[in-house]
């Protein structure tokens, strides 16, 4: 059974940091590229960051470049999103996604709230 479980969300003050984790099971994690998306009420889900299957290539949304870092540990079946210098506009539900060719899987999301 395929599972992606996000964790690490919570409430943080502006300027603070959080590290999100997404742990996978039920598929060959090392063969999949991984992404983090986020969504706020009434808006479409948007890509935040992505990393290739072996972790060699990454890309980021312009709004998070220089603040967020995506990384992948194939030995632990986990992808991370380190989020620094958080802003209120980063408040959203964050989802991880696994993709390989026509296959894709989503996690259920973790809430991140940036507020003083």
CA-based shape: globular
The largest sheet, given as strand count, sense and whether it forms a barrel, is: 7 strands, mixed
Radius of gyration: 13 Å
- The secondary-structure class comes to mainly beta
State the total count of DSSP E strands: 11
- Please estimate the helix content: under 10%
User: Tally the helices: what do you get?
Assistant: 0
SSE ordering: EEEEEEEEEEE
Strand content: over 45%
Measured distance between first and last alpha carbons:
40 Å
Q: Average pLDDT across residues?
A: 97
Which stretches are low in confidence, meaning pLDDT under 50 for 5 or more residues running? none
Task: Kindly describe this structure.
The structure is a single chain. The protein has 116 residues and is mainly beta. Helix content is 0%, strand content 53%. It contains no helices and eleven strands. It has strands at residues 3-7, 10-12, 18-25, 33-39, 46-51, 58-60, 68-73, 78-83, 92-100, 103-106, 110-114. Strands 2, 4, 5, 6, 9, 10 and 11 form a seven-stranded mixed β-sheet that branches. It starts with a strand and ends with a strand. 30% of the residues are buried.
């Amino acid at each position: 059974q395929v599972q992606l479980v996000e964790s690490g969300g919570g409430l943080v003050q502006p300027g603070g940091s959080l590290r999100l984790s997404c742990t996978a099971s039920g598929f060959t994690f090392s063969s999949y590229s991984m992404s983090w998306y986020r969504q706020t009420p009434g808006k479409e889900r948007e890509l935040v960051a992505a990393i290739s299957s072996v972790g060699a290539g990454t890309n980021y949304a312009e709004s998070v470049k220089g603040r967020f870092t995506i990384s992948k540990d194939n030995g632990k079946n986990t992808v991370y999103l380190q989020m620094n210098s958080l802003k209120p506009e980063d408040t959203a539900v964050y989802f991880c996604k696994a993709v390989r060719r026509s296959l894709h899987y989503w996690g259920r999301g973790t809430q991140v709230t940036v507020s003083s």
